[in-house]
Design goal:
By secondary structure, the protein is mainly alpha-helical. The chain has one domain. It contains 13 helices and no strands. Helix 3 runs antiparallel to helix 4. The protein is globular. About 3% of the residues have low confidence.
Length: 295
């Protein structure tokens, strides 16, 4: 195996490890969701991330200074990234793990939307078609009419709301990633993570006094692992995109979509619904099509 192939293999492995880490983070969120308030989960997620990012910055002697021209984009990234994490955690707590995971994978389509509007990239009917196809997949996963499978939508809007939050997580995440794209080359990725963690901790700290629940031993483990898996996922996804071509490694971000039903079955006893399976196939197909167009 030559150096180029070895580097590509390493980047693919990093992407698979990243996707797996985020599934495990969502699993820890779901496991602790019955005992721990949402804001407390988010606080510990970012506390571990803050420690991790600060350690990397100190190790590599990276400056924390951000030029004023870049600060608005950094602020938007922090705000929308924070809202995205809130939605991800809410969806993970209230949906089947597989449903929450696949809806999060809609974020590339929102990145494409911002590429049209914000970055003024060329609009083609094929790229628009990939977005529409992705959202058709989301509608199938949500199954609002209960036509397919055994989904019980008798709760009306209340039963659909967690799915809407799941899509919102993709929107907020996609917007945050678009801002990262604007900051690429101007601000170090680990610096963006550091400021995002600081922002999230400050905001969640306002909610802690009124909602704090003292964790038992098991809950402490879950909370710490939320942060550990989040940091691991962030580290490996950064390594994947910095050591390999995005068009080559992005496909393997769907590792988590394949893994999540297995984890959900083993840990939570969740059976894969036919609507989730069909929606997964549509969203993954549209994602692969979009990647091929970018390539």
């Amino acid at each position: 195996m030559n150096i180029k192939e070895s580097t590509k293999t390493k980047s693919i492995i990093c992407m698979m490890l990243s996707s797996t880490s985020f599934v495990m983070m969502a699993t820890m969120v779901k496991l602790s969701g019955g005992q721990m308030p949402l804001m407390q989960q988010v606080f510990f997620r970012n506390l571990v991330m803050l420690v991790f990012s600060y350690w990397v910055i100190r190790q590599q002697n990276i400056s924390l200074r951000v030029k004023s021209v870049h600060r608005p984009f950094l602020a938007i990234r922090c705000l929308f990234g924070f809202l995205g994490v809130i939605c991800v955690f809410y969806a993970s707590n209230h949906l089947y793990l597989a449903d929450a995971q696949i809806l999060q994978k809609l974020n590339p389509f929102f990145v494409t939307f911002w590429a049209f509007t914000l970055l003024k990239e060329k609009v083609t009917w094929k790229r628009v078609a990939t977005i529409l196809l992705g959202f058709i997949g989301a509608v199938v996963v949500i199954n609002p009419t209960g036509t397919f499978g055994s989904s019980d939508m008798s709760g009306g809007f209340a039963s659909i709301f967690p799915f809407i939050v799941g899509i919102a997580s993709a929107f907020f995440g996609g917007t945050a990633y678009a801002m990262v794209g604007r900051l690429a080359g101007a601000v170090e990725g680990i610096v963006i993570i550091f400021y995002f963690s600081v922002f999230s901790i400050v905001v969640t700290a306002f909610f802690l006094p009124s909602s704090w629940v003292w964790p038992d031993t098991v809950s402490w483990i879950y909370l710490i692992l939320i942060g550990v898996f989040a940091a691991s996922g962030q580290y490996f996804i950064t390594k994947a995109y910095t050591t390999g071509k995005a068009s080559s490694v992005a496909l393997f971000d769907y590792t988590g979509v394949i893994l999540s039903p297995i984890v959900a079955l083993i840990v939570f006893g969740e059976n894969l619904k036919i609507t989730t399976l069909i929606g997964m196939a549509i969203i993954i197909a549209s994602g692969i099509w979009s990647m091929r167009l970018k390539k």
